[in-house]
């Protein structure tokens, strides 16, 4: 896991590849094409790129209209603006009709960094997960992002994809697959299960290594699809290991932790520790400082594992 | 230019559609009377004279599109669609009933002939912009029409959409504002005066026309002029009367979302069929 790649960079490159393969792919942005990396697409396919300017609500509606006209739109901006400012437009014009629109939000979570709490989305997964018909993806790394974007393009219906800003460790092989609705067991284990999403999956793998030195066997499951959740895989892990620690760069309310707890409460209740932001907004700082400050590191996951083993 | 005979026929159609709207709302006892009646004449000209559409093939790719941005006027749209044989007239009785394909606001997945879901104000025009972009990308001859309320244009998104339509030079887009001057809380100019509308669209680089929204010939002529303009989107500010066609509904904000009672239906039908 020494190599690091930014998921947004892979997004931009994958869009260009998709654009070459399918002339129905169109891309929209709201004056952030340099940051979301959709600029790569705009340079090669200017006629299929629409900059909406600083007007996310209209961008969302235009994307819906383009889909109604038979195109496959990818609409991009930062996660706070996509899921926040344009929420009702996504609800009414995309989710309710089930439009074939892909909303790809970059700069998710607190690793946006120095821009501070106003620009750090800690609630977008919860918001999008609550929308009927919406599929919600949160890939772990660069390679999985490429596969997830391809899966989203091939899928018929609304999809929200959450990406980050900074470079994150590579977990998956370059030619990995992505199946919407399926989680992946990255490491087997019997004492407890880490369930991670986004960049926290890499931290879970590191935490499992640390625990192995203490002769604690931790399973690591990666959930790249927050919705629909791979309930079978989650229940299997709960049955076989008897304890679950969730890990997400997001509020513990309503995102991965919320989804896992709902599934376990209905299917196979076991002790759960949710690692994430605890009902709080972020603040300015470097990405690494913020991850450490808000308890989102391998060391924090090890502590959570020790707490849960005591409860088991 | 429509002949006198064509005008008479369209006026007769509009009268029938008003009757359908009133009966539909009376049966459902729920829905928006005033804004459906004010929009009927513009929609009659669109569905029965201007738009290229094929009720036996609602998904025909090259069809013109209609986006009812003021989605609460759904009864007017359903009357037009049933009148054009998209579905049986009998279905109109199911408006707003559980399990009906005629939802309180237009639903593309339930009603044949409805092109997009609308109802949350200000969003339809953005979708119309996207549809116009898609038609151009596909080199299709489709024209896209969207009907907005004059209260609806208080939504900021309308002006975001207006900006984008002009920026992208969407000559195949025509927005009509049903300017009946009333919204739920009262007169539009009292609630939030967004006027003057024509100059606002003009300032956003639209081609702007103002017409009497109940004058069939004038409405049709405006659509001729809109079609002749290929570089800019066209806004038609249609001056209308809320509740048009039924004297005791006219000019009353209180009939925005109220269905006719038994007595009101009887009087309204009598008035409409006498004309």
From TrEMBL, chain A:
Record keywords, A-Z: Thiamine pyrophosphate
InterPro entries in alphabetical order: PDH/Transketolase (IPR051157), THDP-binding (IPR029061), Transketo_C/PFOR_II (IPR009014), Transketolase-like_Pyr-bd (IPR005475), Transketolase_C (IPR033248)
Boundaries of every Transketolase-like pyrimidine-binding domain copy: 5-170
Cofactor(s) needed for function: thiamine diphosphate
Keyword Signal: no
CDD domains associated with the record: TPP_PYR_DXS_TK_like (cd07033)
Keyword Zinc-finger among UniProt keywords: no
Family membership: Belongs to the transketolase family.
Protein name, as recorded: Transketolase
TrEMBL record, chain B:
Cofactor: thiamine diphosphate
A UniProt-annotated Pfam family: Transketolase_N
InterPro entries per UniProt: THDP-binding, Transketolase_N
Origin: domain of life: Bacteria
Domain Transketolase N-terminal: from-to ranges: 13-268
Record family assignment: Belongs to the transketolase family.
Protein name (database record): Transketolase
Organism: Syntrophotalea acetylenivorans
């Amino acid at each position: 896991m020494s190599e690091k790649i930014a998921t947004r960079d892979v997004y931009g490159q994958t869009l260009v590849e998709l654009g070459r393969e399918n002339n129905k792919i169109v891309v929209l942005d709201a004056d952030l094409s340099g940051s979301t990396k959709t600029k790569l697409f705009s340079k090669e396919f200017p006629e299929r790129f629409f900059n909406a300017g600083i007007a996310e609500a209209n961008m969302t509606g235009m994307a819906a209209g383009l889909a109604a006209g038979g195109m496959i739109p990818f609409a991009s901006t930062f996660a706070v603006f996509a899921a926040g400012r344009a929420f009702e437009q996504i609800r009414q014009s995309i989710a309710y009709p089930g439009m074939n629109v892909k909303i790809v939000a970059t700069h998710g979570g607190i690793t946006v960094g120095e821009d501070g709490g106003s620009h750090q989305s800690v609630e977008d997964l919860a918001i999008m997960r609550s929308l009927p018909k919406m599929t919600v993806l949160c890939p772990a790394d660069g390679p999985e992002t490429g596969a997830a974007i391809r899966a989203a393009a091939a899928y018929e219906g609304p999809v929200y994809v959450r990406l980050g800003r900074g470079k994150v460790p590579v977990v998956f092989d370059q030619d990995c697959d992505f199946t919407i609705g399926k989680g992946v067991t990255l490491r087997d284990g019997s004492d407890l299960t880490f369930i991670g999403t986004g960049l926290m999956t890499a931290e879970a793998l590191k935490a499992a290594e640390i625990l192995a030195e203490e002769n604690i066997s931790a399973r690591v499951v990666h959930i790249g699809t927050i919705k629909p959740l791979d309930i079978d895989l989650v229940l299997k892990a709960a049955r076989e290991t008897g304890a679950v620690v969730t890990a997400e760069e997001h509020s513990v309310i309503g995102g991965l932790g919320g989804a896992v707890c709902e599934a376990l409460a209905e299917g196979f209740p076991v002790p759960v520790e949710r690692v994430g932001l605890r009902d709080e907004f972020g603040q300015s700082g470097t990405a690494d400082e913020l991850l450490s400050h808000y308890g989102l590191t391998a060391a924090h996951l090890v502590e959570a594992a020790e707490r849960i083993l005591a409860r088991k | 230019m429509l002949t006198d005979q064509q005008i008479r026929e369209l006026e007769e159609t509009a009268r029938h559609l008003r009757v359908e709207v009133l009966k539909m709302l009376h049966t459902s006892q729920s829905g928006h009377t005033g804004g459906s009646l004010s929009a009927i004449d513009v929609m009659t000209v669109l569905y029965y004279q201007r738009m290229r559409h094929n009720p036996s093939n609602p998904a025909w790719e090259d069809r013109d599109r209609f986006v009812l941005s003021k989605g609460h006027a759904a009864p007017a749209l359903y009357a037009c669609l049933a009148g054009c044989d998209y579905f049986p007239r009998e279905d109109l009785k199911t408006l707003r009933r559980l399990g009906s394909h005629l939802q309180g606001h237009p639903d593309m997945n339930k009603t044949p002939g409805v092109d997009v879901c609308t109802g949350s104000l200000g969003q339809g025009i953005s979708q119309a912009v996207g549809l116009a972009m898609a038609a151009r990308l596909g080199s299709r001859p489709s024209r896209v029409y969207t009907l907005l309320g004059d209260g609806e244009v208080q939504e900021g998104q309308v002006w975001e959409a207006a900006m984008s339509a002009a920026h992208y030079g969407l000559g195949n887009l025509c927005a009509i504002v049903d300017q009946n001057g009333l919204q739920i809380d009262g007169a539009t100019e009292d609630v939030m005066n967004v006027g003057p509308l024509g100059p606002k669209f003009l300032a956003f680089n639209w081609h702007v026309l103002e017409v009497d929204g109940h004058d069939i010939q004038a409405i049709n002529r405006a659509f001729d002029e809109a079609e002749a303009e290929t570089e800019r989107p066209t806004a038609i500010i249609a001056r209308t009367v809320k509740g048009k066609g039924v004297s005791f509904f006219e000019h009353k904000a209180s009939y925005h979302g109220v269905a006719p009672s038994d007595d009101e239906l009887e009087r309204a039908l009598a008035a409409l069929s006498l004309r």
